[in-house]
Every structure is written in C-alpha cells, then in structure tokens.
Design goal:
heterodimer, A: alpha/beta, Rossmann fold, 3 domains, six-stranded mixed sheet, 25% strand, B: mainly alpha, MetI-like fold
C-alpha cells in the first residue's frame, strides 16, 4: 500500500478550478518530485495534502495516507501534520518566529509531536541537520539563509514524520547553499527511510534528488514517471520544452570585439555606516573593497559571486544610483564616483532590473515608462519621441499597440522584455543586467537570453551581467569576474574558469553546480 | 464602478454622506425659513407641518438651522482637509524623496504641531484675531497637516524602495519629479482614505470649537453652535439638543463607514486579479 495516495484531486476557487484531475501515489521511502512553472498549481497541490489551503479554496477528490482519508477536523489534522507529514517552506525567515531562539522553536515542535518512539532532543536534531549546538542559542535573524533552512528541516523532523514535503526549499538560497541543502535532504531521507515530496521549478534540482517526477502545467498533470526516463525522453511537448529550456545553448563565437576600453573601474570602495548614533561606534560595513577592472567595448562581462558579495552595489555605482566611498569609475574618459554621473553621460549606461514586477510604475502606461529615459536627450519633438519608443518596443519583439496598456496586463517574461526596451531606448553603450532572468520562468529564460544576444549583435552593446547562475554565465559571457566579500578573486574566460577554477570560492561554485539533466 | 458597488458599507456610507452634503448645499439657495428670523411668539413649537423639526428658544425654524449648520460643518471640515492635504502631502513626499535633513525637519515640524491640539491652536488664533468660522478652518487645517505628512511619508517610503523609482532616477529625474510622477500616484488611495477620516474628525472638531464658542458665531450657525444654544433648556426641551446631536453622530458614522469601505475597496490585498505595489 502506498504511503500517500492522491486521487482526482481538484482545488477550486469558486467555479474556477486552479488544480484538477491530479492523481499520484507515493510509496514509503520514495522521493517524488513535482515540477512546474509559477502558477502551475504545484504549491496548491501540496497545501491540499497538508490541509493548509487558503480561505476560499475548496479541495475535491480523495487524499489517503496509509489508506485512510485525511481527517476533517482541524485538531486531528494538526496532529497528523506534525507526526506523519513534515514541511519545509520556501522562505525560512518568514516561517520562523523572529522572537524565539531556534532551539526553543525546535523544542516546541518536539513537545507538540511527542510520540512513543525514541526520545528526541534538540542537540541531536541540530547535529542531524549539520548545525552546531551554539547555533541553537541564536535568533533566526542571526543565522544565514542556509542555516535557517536547516532549522526548518530540524523542526520538520521533530515529529519523526514518514513524509517530508519541501516546497521550493532552495530557491531563496544561493548556489553553494542550495547544493548543500539538497544534499542534506537527500541524506536525511536516505537515513530515516522517509518519503519526500519535492516541489520545484528547477528541473536540475528535481533530477538530482528525486527518483520519480510529475510535470504540472496549468493545474493539470502532464506527465508522471521515473525521473531519468522522463527527462531523457519526454513524452509530452511541454516537458520537452521545459527540458530544452533548462539547458543554455552556448552562444556562437565570433562577435566583433574591439580592444578599446569603454569603462574603467579604479579601486572602488563602498562603506555603509552601520546603525548607531555615534559616528565612531560601529566599524562601517565594507560592501565593495578596492575593486578595479575594465570593460571593453562590445564584450559581455559577467560578475559572479554568492549573495552579499557586493556585486549589486558595484553595479549601482557604475550606473549612478549609489556613490563610491573612494575610487572612481571612468566612462569614455569622464571620471565619476556614482551619483555625480554627468547628465550627458547618463544616456550611455542603463540598467535592467532583476524583478520585472517591481520595475514598472503600475499607474503609468508602458509608453510613459519607456519614454521616461528619453528626457535625457534634449530637444526631442513628441513625434520623434513616439517613434523612438515604438522602435524600442519593436526591437524586443512586442507590438507598438501594447504601448497604451498598463504593466499589470503583461506576463513576467513580457515585462522583462519591456524593461530591456526601456534600457535600450536611449541607445546606450553599456547595459548592466542585474540577474536578468532569475525571476523568470524556465521556459521564457531562453527567449530573453536569445533576445539579449540578438540585441547585442544588432546594436553593438556592451553587457555587464550580474548573476550567480553559472550555466547562464557560461552561455552568455566572454569574460568572467568572481567576487567574494567585496573583493575580486578570479578573472578569466568562462571556459577556463569553469574547467580549471583556481580560487577556493570558484571551485566551490563550480562543484555546487547541479549536474545537467539527462 | 462595479468594484465600488461590491462593498455594501461603502455604498451605505457614501449615500449617507451625500445625503447630508446635499441637504447642506441646498441651504445655500433655499431654507424653509431664513435662519436669522427671530420670532419670539412662535418659540419652542413642537414639530408640525409648518416647522418640520419645530422651533428653538428664539423661534427660529430648526429644519432651516440644521440645513445651514450641516453646510457650515461640511465646509469647515472640507477646507481644513484641503489645507491639511495641500500642505501635508507635499511635505511628506519631500521627506521621503529627499531624506536626510529634509526628512528630519519635516518630522520634527510635525511632532511640534502634533503637540498642539486643534483647540489650543483655535484659542491662540481667537486671542489674536477673534473668533469665527475662518479661525476654526485654520485651526483644524493646521492640525491636519502633520497627519497627512505622516501618511504620505509612510506610503512613499514603501514605494521609494521599488525598482521603478530607481529606473526613474536612472532616467535623470530629480527628487521633485520622482515624488510627483512615481510616488504621488501610488499613494493617492491612502490619501483619499485618510481624507474621509479627517473629514469626519474635522466635523467633530468644528462642533467642539463652536460649542466652546471659538468657532462659528451667530447669526451664522453650525451644529455645534446649536448644541450650545440648546444646552440650557435641555431638561425642558431635550428635542432641541437631540436634533443637532444626532445629525453630528449620523454624519460622522456615515463618513467613517465610507472611509472603511473605501479602504476595503482600494486595498490591493482584497482585490482580485490586479497587482498593486503598495501591498
């Protein structure tokens, strides 16, 4: 008999079925993955299994655990959640109580789920998830993202569940931590003979962790089967598309690269004063520490590093949103420190933001947003202005008729195209791309990267890409810089760096990459 | 429009508010009797077809007085809200857009004004230039400024961290342009909701100021002034106190319900299918 059996599950919001006709079974000790893009209903499926659906959602169909249906009343459901099903969520900071030490929170989870089995204690659990006893003394905000996720796993294990549900447990973490957490989950499932229901948009993570996989699209199951079989030979078009999109095709070489230097960064340092009234109290936080490099005209330079290494701060200084504490940036012979970037030069650099949802004013039409940077060019008539905006939107493959619409009418991929159009409307020389595809669904990432490559060839742009996604960097970049704790630690071509990493951090990054699927 | 009608409390509140506003506005062009007309012979009449709400201690028609009083209350509160929003919102936006010394100055200024209730400001103005409806407007208006400044700053701060504001800065917009183009449209809903709340508080304050004699002066009238005139005969003729008192209560309740409904209607978390940045 299977541990978990879902038959014909549907989740409805009024008449609209967000999830329908979901059936799958999970044997004891099995590792099962659900893959799908945002909005495919994979999280709703997990919530239906745990009885945590949001208000207004109605679940239909049957969910059996060890052959018995889920209890109806909240009390016995809560007991079941603790003892049979453990859960790990996406964002560990919001899932932990900020005012309780983590050992108290784990202790609480143990007391609430006391079973007759072997007694558990906090130090034991902490050790199992790879934390030291001193970490238990801390509050959630004193731990790193990876450590917080380990605490979440320890709490999920406190009831000694038979099934662990992990909903995107690593998507808020950087590459190295992601790999460690995935390895930890695999190891714990192995040791405890615990079944795993792993929900993710990342095909590689699912492939690395799960033996069986289900692919979801628009609330329906598209395909279910053994992981290797499905990813090696997808039976459905949608799966094929996902598998193809999760591989980045390296760009064809042979772009014209000029030797002239476009931007020079000279010993740029950025200190942030930390809280406290007294100016001499705390040591300032050094986000960027004496970084020097140059960007050649026409190249695509990638800046790689773990989260918090200062790469975004550096980008803000280059585009003129932040000011360096010392050092200077030189663009076409003009030296500036950040916000003092002269207005005449502002049109030569632009930035594409990471999050396509926050980068447009919801109360302005797309035409208004796209036309905004053109204020930097003096003496444009309304006609030429309209023409330039239309050219920009056509360049990213969207219709000029869309200009009258508002941002909420567009999907994430379309918004990122519009953000690129806005960055190009002043015909800049340097475009800084801050994680340009990491907020997008897998299937549109490829399109956006292809668009960026085409635009570079067409307009002779210079790119500075900021990312922690090594596969994307390898596909796009001509040259890679690796940053750690505000310093530049390694530089080289993508192939050399990834084949023979020299610095410890680069080696860690390269080994943390998940294997290519199939 | 359908979104507005989906909130019953908003419909009820707005209908009540509009009803009183129309009654008040009507008094500008027509009242059953002139409110200054004193006819001692017909004083303390009970409600009758000639005098719908009876007459007061000077024989004035109560229905006419209520109409004129409502008009005064609304006018005073509305102008005070306009003063508060007109000065407070730009101050709050400036604090959020410039930060640093400007923000410090705006916050300390609003702390300073907050320390004086409207009544103290009104006493101060009365001491300087004498009582009157205009003084009530100024006093309540000054009291409204820091309220709007804080709401605007709070809303604008949460918007200012979003990427489109950074995009605006990249496009070379100055602080003033950022505040006007990007911050203001996105905090409008907050300002409107706060406006209805301040309107009801303004009506209460005006009633209070007139009641202690610092607001509207006879022969003009306001609901607070009517309360004051009637309090001496409350035990003999309670009706004269109940009418203006109930009017104040009903107007304030209607405005509060409308404000709550407006907040629900505008609140992005309660809205389906449309994303909004202020969430």
């Amino acid at each position: 008999m299977s541990l978990l059996e879902v038959k014909n599950l549907a989740v409805r919001f009024g008449p609209w079925a967000a999830v329908a006709e979901i059936s799958f079974a999970l044997a004891a000790g099995e590792r099962f993955g659900i893959v799908g893009e945002s909005g495919s209903g994979k999280t709703l499926t997990a919530m239906a299994i745990t009885g945590l659906l949001p208000d207004g959602a109605i679940a239909e169909g049957s969910i059996l655990i060890d052959g018995t249906p889920l209890p109806q009343d909240e009390r016995s459901m809560a007991r079941l959640r603790g003892k049979r099903i453990g859960m790990v969520f996406q964002e560990p900071m919001t899932a932990l109580n900020p005012l309780m030490r983590v050992e108290e929170q784990i202790e609480e989870a143990i007391t609430l789920n006391r079973s007759d089995g072997a007694p558990l204690d906090v130090p034991h659990l902490l050790e199992e998830v790879g934390l030291e006893p001193r970490h238990g003394q801390r509050f959630p905000h004193q731990l790193s993202g990876g450590q917080r996720q380990r605490v979440m796993i320890a709490m999920a294990l406190a009831g000694q569940p038979d099934l662990l549900i992990a909903d995107e447990p690593t998507s808020a973490l950087d590459l190295i931590t992601q790999r460690r957490i995935l390895d930890l989950i695999a190891e714990i499932c192995e040791r405890r003979q615990m079944a795993l229901l792993f929900i993710s948009h990342d095909l590689k993570a699912v492939a690395a962790l799960c033996t069986r996989v289900a692919v979801m699209q628009k609330g329906r199951l598209v395909e279910t089967g053994a992981t290797e079989a499905i990813f090696a030979a997808p039976g459905q078009d949608y799966t094929r598309k996902l598998v193809a999109a999760s591989r980045f095709e390296p760009r064809s070489e042979g772009r014209s690269r000029k030797a002239e230097t476009l931007v020079e960064i000279e010993k740029v340092t950025r200190d942030y004063r930390q809280g406290g009234v007294l100016p001499w109290g705390n040591k300032p936080l050094r986000a960027v520490d004496g970084v020097s490099f140059s960007i050649h005209a026409g190249e695509c330079l990638a800046l790689v590093g773990p989260s918090g290494c200062g790469k975004t701060t550096l980008a803000k200084i280059i585009v003129g949103l932040d000011t360096a504490s010392s050092g200077a940036v030189r663009l076409e012979g003009v030296s500036y420190r950040g916000r003092d970037l002269p207005k005449s030069l502002r049109r030569d650099v632009s930035l594409v933001f990471q999050d396509p949802f926050g980068s447009f004013n919801p109360r302005m039409t797309i035409a208004g947003s796209l036309g905004e940077p053109l204020r930097l060019e003096r003496g444009l008539t309304p006609d030429t202005l309209r023409e330039r905006v239309q050219l920009a939107i056509a360049a990213v493959g969207l219709e000029p008729s869309m200009l009258a619409r508002y941002p909420h009418e567009f999907s994430g991929g379309q918004r990122q195209r519009l953000a690129i159009a806005r960055a190009l409307v002043t015909r800049p020389k340097l475009v800084v791309l801050d994680e340009p595809v990491s907020a997008l669904d897998v299937s549109v990432r490829g399109e956006v990267l292809a668009l960026l490559a085409r635009l570079q060839a067409e307009f002779g742009l210079t790119y500075l890409i900021i990312s922690h996604d090594l596969d994307m960097v390898r596909a796009m970049a001509d040259r890679v810089l690796v940053m750690e704790a505000g310093r530049m630690v390694e530089e080289g071509g993508p192939h050399e760096i990834f084949a023979r990493p020299q610095h410890r951090l680069t080696q860690e990054l390269v080994t943390a990459r998940l294997p290519e699927i199939a | 429009m359908r979104r507005v009608l989906a909130h019953p409390s908003l419909v009820i509140g707005l209908a009540g508010t509009l009803l009183f506003a129309v009654i008040g506005l009507l008094s500008m062009v027509w009242t059953p009797y002139p409110i200054e007309q004193i006819v001692v012979a017909r004083r303390f009449l009970p409600p009758s077809p000639e005098h719908w709400l009876g007459t007061d201690n000077l024989g004035r028609d109560m229905a006419s007085l209520v109409m004129a009083g409502t008009y005064t209350s609304f006018l005073v509160a509305a102008i005070a809200v306009a003063i508060g929003a007109g000065i407070g919102v730009p101050l709050g936006l400036a604090a959020a857009a410039w930060g640093g010394a400007v923000e410090w100055l705006v916050l300390r200024l609003s702390d300073f004004v907050f320390a004086f209730p409207a009544i103290v400001v009104a006493i101060l103005i009365t001491a300087l230039i004498g009582p009157g409806a205009v003084n009530a407007i100024v006093a309540i208006g000054i009291f409204n400024i820091p309220v709007f400044a804080r709401v605007a700053r709070g809303g604008a701060l949460s918007i200012a961290t979003l990427d489109f504001v950074a995009a605006g800065r990249l496009a070379g917009l100055g602080n003033a342009a950022i505040a006007y183009r990007h911050l203001l449209p996105n905090i409008m809903s907050l300002i409107i909701v706060q406006g209805t709340i301040q309107l009801s508080l303004g009506i209460l304050s005006e009633a209070g100021l007139s009641y202690v004699g610092l607001g509207t002066q006879p022969p003009e009238t306001s609901l607070g002034l009517m309360l004051r005139d009637a309090q001496g005969v409350f035990l003999i003729h309670p009706w004269l106190t109940l009418v203006p008192g109930l009017c104040i209560v009903l107007i304030v309740i209607a405005l509060n319900i409308a404000g709550d409904g407006l907040r629900d209607a505008i609140d992005p978390r309660l809205r389906q299918g449309e994303t909004h940045v202020a969430s």
